[in-house]
Amino acid sequence: MRLLHQRKRQGLVKALPCFFAITRVHFEGNGCTLLRWLNRSRKRQGLANPVNTEVRPTENLMIWRGKGWLVPAIVFVVSLIAELLTEDVIFKDDTYYQGERWPFACSLVVSAATLWRLGRKVFPTTTRRLTDQDSGQEVVFKDSHDFLFVRMEYWGPLLLLSSIGYLLFG
Questions:
Q1: Which residues contact 154 (CB under 8 A, 6 or more apart)?
Q2: Cα(83)–Cα(93) distance, rounded to whole angstroms?
Q3: What are phi and psi of 25, to 5 degrees?
Q4: Per-residue b/e over 136-159, b at no fewer than 16 CB within 10 Å?
Q5: What is the pLDDT of residue 21?
């Protein structure tokens, strides 16, 4: 890599290949240095629009809040149980679950009922009110259980509509 940079400085290499650019960022972990180098080379070549060298921290996308992780877990477990029941216990056919629509639709209905019940009764949204002593302002904290920004109890009707749509339109 150093040999490549020495040759670049000497003018023997006109452009840094994409593979080397990617490996430099990957292995050295210093993408800002590479972007500065790209900006300098773009300025030398007379190109506009320099590359942005601002380094921002990685932001994590919040997929669930509270007990919201239970939504995909419950759908997965209930679907797995439905598949095991239809293939091994009831029909004793290894391809029945994949060939018919109704077992998966029934598993979605059971998941919908379970999530509706959990969201409404077991894990209700709680509200805490705190008062700031200095300013006297009231702050409200809501503890909710969301998955993909949808509250847990609303996944019940969504899954119910999904099961109907799957049965009708498959």
A1: 119
A2: 11
A3: -65, -40
A4: eeeeeeeebbbbeeebbbebbeeb
A5: 40
Q: What pLDDT shows up at residue 15?
A: 47
Domain ranges of the chain: 2-45, 64-169
Specify the pTM: 0.60
Supply the pLDDT for residue 107: 96
Tell me the C-alpha distance between 143 and 128, whole Å.
Answer: 8
CA angle, corner 59, sides to 53 and 63, nearest 5? Answer: 150
Q: What are the pLDDT digits (tens) for 101-145?
A: 999 999 999 999 999 999 998 888 788 888 888 888 888 888 888
Amino acid at 84: L
The answer for residues whose C-beta is within 8 angstroms of residue 85's C-beta and 6 or more apart is 103
Tokens of 149: 């920004």
Per-residue 3-state assignment (H helix, E strand, C coil) for 98-159: HHCCHHHHHHHHHHHHHHHHHHHHHCCCEEEEEECCCCCCEEEEEECCEECCEEHHHHHHHH
CA 150, CA 155: separation in Å to the nearest integer? Answer: 7
Round to whole Å and give the CA distance between 50 and 136: 49
Token pair listed for 37: 């180098």
